[in-house]
């Protein structure tokens, strides 16, 4: 009996070990996971590129949002065709213009949808996942009849500042480094360009099916808004998310309808209304962990009614449409970065030609130095074995094995 018990215990230990191993390979140490992140990033980047070409003067913001989500769905449909692999939109396409900060993804039923015009500062924001591995991105550009026309004035200052701050953040995300220097760098760039980081913007660690993990970098630290310090580690994935404003950077809600939500997985409540139960059931089935737009639900009218009770009982998190003061301009850049053995790799985001921003403002020497850093890890040179052993071994002790990359 004792032998049987020991054997059973051994089997249990092996099963537990297998489970731990299975959980462990969901990060970047598994090449298949890296492949899925990069596949998601390819879809995100191609969608972003397509939207920049599609978003011309005279286009409705609603049509651009619909087109973005369709592009994501179509591209994902041709990849990883196993029925067990979920894929698609990880954050619905949002198009926020000028003083609108974020999360603007209107519904088909709305009649007063904004139409783009020449000179608009347009922010595109979207996310893609393959098997729960998420790639998010955001890009800012200015509507111009002639794309070679330089961007000037406040638009040039705020766009260049947001882009350079985001690029500096990428350089500062390395294993062993802390989150604090990123917040400091964003402030330095903002000061150099005479703009302001927007309050409440957080950069999260991402994991499988988790778009907003616990490790957080804050874009603007204040007495009432701080985050816990932490250090970046190998095999982690992060969002770099920088939003700059020509105003005070204190966004507010206006009268725009909130259409983007996320299921609060830890909350439970027995809903009373039939419409609420129907909507919540659909959300549980289609979007159990990631953000979604009401537009993606089967019955928009019923969804608008049903989310009210869900919000009242904290079953959903809302992503409200936020605005700066009228006349201010906001720029937004967002990247996904992987901490791989070879170094930090930015996998989302479109190329930006900073020369198109006609501004006399420049980042300080400290930021320029950060931007000049390589994101790749340096390989250590292997020393001559005998010389290394002789130098490393104290008298009377055997030489220790050298560490190599």
From TrEMBL:
InterPro entries to which the protein is assigned, alphabetical: Creatinase/aminopeptidase-like (IPR036005), PA2G4 (IPR004545), PA2G4/ARX1 (IPR047113), Pept_M24 (IPR000994), WH-like_DNA-bd_sf (IPR036388), WH_DNA-bd_sf (IPR036390)
Acidic residues bias (residue ranges): 16-26
Comp. bias (Low complexity): 389-399
Coiled-coil features, chain-numbered ranges: none
Pfam families: Peptidase_M24
Domain Peptidase M24: 36-213
Comp. bias regions, Basic residues: 374-385
Residues covered by region (Disordered): 1-29, 374-405
CDD domains named in the record: PA2G4-like
Family: Belongs to the peptidase M24 family.
Protein name: ERBB-3 BINDING PROTEIN 1 (StEBP1)
Organism whose genome encodes this protein: Durusdinium trenchii
């Amino acid at each position: 009996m004792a032998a049987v018990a020991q054997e059973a215990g051994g089997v249990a230990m092996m099963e537990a070990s297998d489970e731990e191993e299975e959980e462990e390979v969901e990060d970047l140490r598994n090449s298949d996971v890296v492949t899925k992140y990069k596949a998601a990033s390819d879809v995100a980047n191609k969608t972003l590129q397509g939207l920049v070409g599609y978003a011309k003067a005279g286009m409705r913001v609603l049509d651009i949002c619909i087109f973005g989500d369709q592009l994501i769905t179509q591209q994902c449909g041709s990849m990883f065709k196993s029925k067990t692999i979920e894929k698609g939109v990880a954050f619905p396409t949002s198009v926020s213009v000028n003083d609108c900060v974020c999360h603007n993804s209107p519904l088909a039923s709305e009649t007063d949808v904004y139409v783009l015009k020449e000179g608009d500062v347009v922010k595109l924001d979207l996310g893609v996942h393959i098997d729960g591995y998420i790639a998010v991105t955001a890009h800012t550009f200015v509507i111009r009849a002639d794309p070679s026309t330089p961007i000037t004035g406040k638009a040039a200052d705020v766009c260049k500042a947001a882009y350079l701050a985001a690029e500096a953040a990428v350089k500062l995300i390395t294993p062993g480094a802390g989150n604090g220097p990123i917040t400091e760098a964003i402030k330095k760039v903002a000061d150099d360009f005479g703009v302001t980081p927007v309050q409440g913007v957080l950069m999260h660690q991402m994991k499988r099916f988790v778009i907003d993990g616990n490790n957080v970098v804050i874009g603007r630290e204040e007495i009432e808004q701080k985050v816990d310090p932490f250090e970046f580690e190998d095999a982690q994935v992060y969002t770099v998310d920088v939003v700059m404003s020509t105003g005070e950077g204190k966004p507010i809600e206006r009268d725009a309808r909130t259409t983007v939500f996320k299921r609060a997985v830890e909350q439970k409540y027995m809903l009373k209304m039939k419409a609420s139960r129907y909507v919540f059931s659909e959300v549980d089935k289609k979007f159990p962990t990631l953000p979604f737009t009401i537009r993606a639900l089967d019955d928009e009218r019923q969804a608008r009614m049903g989310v009210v009770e869900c919000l009242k009982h904290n079953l959903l998190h809302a992503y409200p449409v936020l605005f700066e003061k009228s006349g201010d301009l906001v720029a937004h850049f967002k990247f996904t970065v992987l901490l791989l053995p070879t170094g930090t790799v930015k996998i989302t985001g479109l190329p930006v030609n900073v020369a198109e921003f006609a501004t006399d403002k420049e980042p300080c020497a400290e930021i320029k130095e950060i931007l000049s850093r390589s994101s790749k890890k340096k390989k250590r040179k292997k020393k001559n074995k005998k010389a290394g052993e002789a130098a490393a071994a104290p008298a009377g002790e055997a030489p220790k094995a050298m560490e190599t990359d």
